[in-house]
From TrEMBL:
NCBIfam families: PRK07827.1 (NF005879). Belongs to the enoyl-CoA hydratase/isomerase family. Gene3D superfamilies: 2-enoyl-CoA Hydratase, Chain A, domain 1, Lyase 2-enoyl-coa Hydratase, Chain A, domain 2. SUPFAM superfamilies: ClpP/crotonase. It comes from Streptomyces agglomeratus. InterPro entries: ClpP/crotonase-like_dom_sf, Enoyl-CoA_hydra/iso, Enoyl-CoA_hydra_C, Enoyl-CoA_Hydratase/Isomerase. One of its GO terms (molecular function) is catalytic activity. This is Enoyl-CoA hydratase.
């Protein structure tokens, strides 16, 4: 049974992260299936745009700490979203943590409702938001990125929109907020969308071209470190890691 079912309506293909047992965490399998689904959308002329959403109360909990994806595979997924010749729109009605924020950064447009919350939790695990920085830092307010990268604080949809992490922070129904966006995409030509997307993603793709090797190596090194082992173990055991004061 697929972890990323697809549905199509009037030019919009909706891909749903459907692994609620682990809060849609980025396991090797989910990353692979999502990458394959996006590749299929890129080749399908009936797809004008992609909407990425989720089941359950969590959009994505970040990397699956029990079966994490290879950092290179995660980078390929994020770059694939940015480089897809069709817009990708994220629809968020739940929580987003760590690597899940990288998915939002890679999407062209994202909207979150009042039930959404966000947090860069990596620093609390002895890690850092290394590879996900490539789609995020070119788009986020630098001061906000510094604060939330370092502290791991949780913040809401309004703050996520203010900082540039997402496009729309809605106090009401997220589908109502996205309706004019999807209508606009349906009215645009395939060529117009592809060429316009090339313009707005150029700096993000440049970050991937410049930093991928360095950040993949850094991510792998951090995951293999003693501090990360303690942080992940403490998280799984639901206790504070040894360094908490």
């Amino acid at each position: 049974m697929t972890l990323v079912p697809a549905a199509h309506e009037r030019g919009i293909t909706t891909l749903t992260l459907d692994s609620p047992a682990n809060r849609n965490a980025l396991s090797a399998r989910l990353v692979g299936e999502l990458a394959d689904a996006l590749s299929a959308c890129a080749k399908d002329p009936s797809v004008r745009a992609v909407q990425l959403t989720h089941t359950g109360g969590t959009f994505c909990a970040g990397a699956d700490l029990k079966t994490p994806p290879d950092p290179a595979a995660l980078v390929a997924l994020l770059r694939g979203i940015v480089g897809l010749p069709k817009p990708v729109v994220a629809r968020v009605t739940g929580h987003v943590r760590a690597g899940g924020l990288g998915l939002l950064g890679a999407c062209d447009i994202s909207a979150a409702g009042p039930g959404a919350s966000f947090a860069f939790t990596e620093s609390r695990l002895g890690l850092a938001p290394a590879v996900i920085s490539m789609p995020l830092l070119p788009r986020m307010d630098p001061r906000a990125a510094a604060r939330y990268y370092l502290t791991g604080e949780r913040f809401d949809a309004a703050e996520a929109a203010r900082t540039g992490l997402i496009t729309i922070g809605s106090d009401d129904d997220v589908d109502q907020a996205l309706a004019p966006v999807l209508d606009g995409l349906r009215r645009a030509s395939p060529q117009g969308l592809a060429e316009s997307k090339r313009l707005v993603t150029a700096t993000v793709l440049a970050a991937f071209d410049r930093d991928t090797d360095t950040l993949v190596e850094r991510s792998a090194s951090l995951f293999a470190s003693r501090e990360a082992a303690e942080g992940v173990t403490a998280f799984l055991e639901r206790r504070d890691p040894a360094w908490v004061l």
